[in-house]
Design goal:
With 303 residues, the protein is of the alpha+beta class. The chain has a domain at 163-232 and 259-287: SH3 type barrels. It is built from seven helices and seven strands. The strands form two sheets. It has a five-stranded antiparallel beta sheet with strand order 6-5-4-3-7. Strands 1-2 form a two-stranded antiparallel sheet. One of its GO terms (molecular function) is structural constituent of ribosome. Belongs to the eukaryotic ribosomal protein eL6 family. Keywords: Ribonucleoprotein, Ribosomal protein. Residues 1-11 have a biased composition (Polar residues).
Length: 303
C-alpha cells in the first residue's frame, strides 16, 4: 500500500526508500533551471514526514535513530587452546609443531639464535614484624603529629607589674584591676583588690584588657605561690546512686571557697591597699567602673 501524498507540492517523483508509489512529473516547467537550486528543490520535495527511513526526517526523541533494528552484539568465542588434547596428556600437535605455531622460531631468530633472558627481580625483604592476623573492627583515630614547640606568650609592652588594667569581658567587665604577674600559661594574674571593687585573685587573658598609664607600687606584695595549678579545679569521681538516692530530689550544693584561699586574698589585699592609700584618689579610681558616655569617642581616649 502506497503513502498518502496529499500535501501541497508539485507532482514529481518521490525518492523515499520505502515508498513504492512513484508518480511522474506532469509539469516539468516547474523545475528550476539552476543545478544547485534544482538539487535543494528536489531534496525538499523528496522529504516524507511519515517515513522513518527518510534521510530528511529527524529522530523523534533524543537518542533515537532512524534504524529499525539495533545492531546485534558481536559473538565472542571462548579462549580455546591451540593444541587440543586427543586424550588426557596427549596433544593433537607435536612439540616441534607447536614450536612453529607459537612463533618461537621468530623470537629466537630475532635475538641472534637464543631466547632473550631477563634478570630476576629481587625478592621483597621480609617485614621486621609480622602483620597481625586479626585487627579491630572499629577504626582507631590516630592523633595528628604536632611539631609545635611551647613558647611563652609574649606580654604587651604596655603591661608591666603594677599597671592598672580595665577588664573588657566576663563577669567583671568594666572593673579596674591591678596586674601582679604573668603566669606560665600566658594569662595575667590580677586582683581588684577584692576589698575595694570586689574582684578577687583571678586569671585574665591579655586580649580582653586595656592597659592604662596608672601604676601601683607592688614591691611589698608576695605572689610567688600563685601559679596555674593554684586556680585549677579538683575533679571528684561521681558515686553511683542507689535505688533510693535515684528517686530523691538532688540538692544543689554551693561551691564553698576554701579557707586557705580566703587567707591568701586577705594577705595580698593588705599589702596592696597600703600602697594604694598612699596615692590620693587612687582608691576611688579603682572602685569606679569604666563606662562610655554620650559624645565620648573611644579612639580618642587616653587611658
Amino acid at each position: 500500500m502506497g503513502h498518502n501524498h496529499s500535501y501541497n507540492q508539485p507532482n514529481i517523483k518521490h525518492h523515499c526508500k520505502s515508498c513504492t508509489s512513484i508518480r511522474p512529473n506532469k509539469s516539468p516547467s516547474l523545475s528550476p533551471t539552476n543545478p544547485l537550486i534544482f538539487i535543494i528543490y528536489h531534496n525538499l520535495l523528496g522529504f516524507h514526514p511519515f517515513n522513518p527511513l527518510c534521510p530528511f526526517n529527524p529522530p523523534r526523541f533524543i537518542g533515537a535513530t532512524n534504524h529499525r533494528r539495533p545492531m546485534a552484539p558481536k559473538d565472542r568465542k571462548p579462549h580455546v587452546s591451540r593444541n587440543p588434547d586427543l586424550i588426557r596428556g596427549v596433544g593433537k600437535y607435536s612439540r616441534s609443531k607447536m614450536y612453529h605455531k607459537r612463533g618461537l622460531w621468530a623470537i629466537k631468530a630475532k635475538n641472534g639464535g637464543a631466547f632473550p633472558k631477563h634478570e630476576k627481580q629481587a625478592a621483597a625483604a621480609a617485614p621486621a614484624e609480622k602483620p597481625p592476623k586479626f585487627y579491630p573492627a572499629d577504626d582507631v583515630k590516630k592523633p595528628l603529629v604536632n611539631k609545635r614547640k611551647a613558647r611563652p606568650t609574649k606580654l604587651r609592652a604596655s603591661i608591666t607589674p603594677g599597671t592598672v588594667l580595665i577588664i573588657l569581658a566576663g563577669r567583671f567587665k568594666g572593673k579596674r584591676v591591678v596586674f601582679l604577674k604573668q603566669l606560665t600559661s600566658g594569662l595575667l594574674l590580677v586582683t581588684g583588690p577584692f576589698k575595694i571593687n570586689g574582684v578577687p585573685l583571678r586569671r585574665v587573658n591579655q586580649s580582653y584588657v586595656i592597659a592604662t598609664s596608672t601604676k601601683v607600687d607592688i614591691s611589698g606584695v608576695n605572689v610567688e605561690k600563685f601559679d596555674d595549678k593554684y586556680f585549677g579545679k579538683k575533679v571528684e569521681k561521681k558515686k553511683k546512686k542507689g535505688e533510693g538516692e535515684f528517686f530523691e530530689a538532688e540538692k544543689e550544693e554551693k561551691n564553698v571557697l576554701p579557707q586557705d584561699k580566703k587567707d591568701d586574698q586577705k594577705t595580698v589585699d593588705a599589702a596592696l591597699i597600703a600602697a594604694i592609700e598612699a596615692v590620693p584618689d587612687l582608691k576611688s579610681y579603682l572602685g569606679a567602673r569604666f563606662s562610655l558616655k554620650a559624645g565620648m569617642k573611644p579612639h580618642e581616649l587616653v587611658f
